[in-house]
Amino acid sequence: MKVIPLRSPGPVYSGWAYLLLGEWNRLEDVNALVDTGTDGGIVDIVQTMNTGIGKRQVDIVLLTHSHFDHAGGVGRVTATYGCPVAAIAPTDGVTRLVHDGEIIRLADRDAEIMACNEHSMDSMCIYVHGDGYLFTGDTPLFVRSTGGTYSDEFATLLRRLTRLPVRAIFPGHDVPTVEGAQELISRTLAIVEADIEKSRPCAQ
User: Fold this and answer.
1) Is 191 helix (H, G, I), strand (E, B) or coil?
2) 204: pLDDT confidence band, cut at 50, 70 and 90?
3) Can you spell out the DSSP letters for 166-189?
4) Distance between CA atoms of 113 and 27, rounded to whole angstroms?
5) Beta carbons of 2 and 21 less than 8 angstroms apart
6) Segments of 43-95 assigned E as strands
7) Would you say domain 2-199 falls under CATH 2.30.30.240?
């Protein structure tokens, strides 16, 4: 799988979008866009790319969550490509609901949907099997110090991720982590578990 980070060239605040393509741009590959950014300006960039002869440049959009800096450009993307929009909860522009644990074909790989409501109630991560790529939106995997408040469900997600060979993390705003991704998740899990334990009522 090829991962192409995209961000609108305009002055408006926006998260990263990621275009996922197969290694050989075959007809059967599913060109996928993870998030759209705020204004859809990434369309102008995608239009200049070689995404496969005889293929639609974007076959499907997946939204990590519905906040404007990740999903505001849905209208322009779908108007350009006529593609479905998948998310874990209904919101403007969504035409397909996916669920936790669902396997979906993206580019030339199978990817797994992972629900996580730590950032918002409609947040999800996307894990690409085979390549070990993890797309996180604004799910807070980069926890560096104690003192936060976290849910048991978030700790469960982190434990789930530690059991997978995560090789690279593609977040919504930071630069991708392509080295030490597994170690980063394990450190975050240790901090989150410690904070959760501190927040529990003392046993009588």
Assistant:
1) helix
2) very low
3) --EEEESSSPPB-SSHHHHHHHHH
4) 24
5) yes
6) 60-62, 85-87
7) no
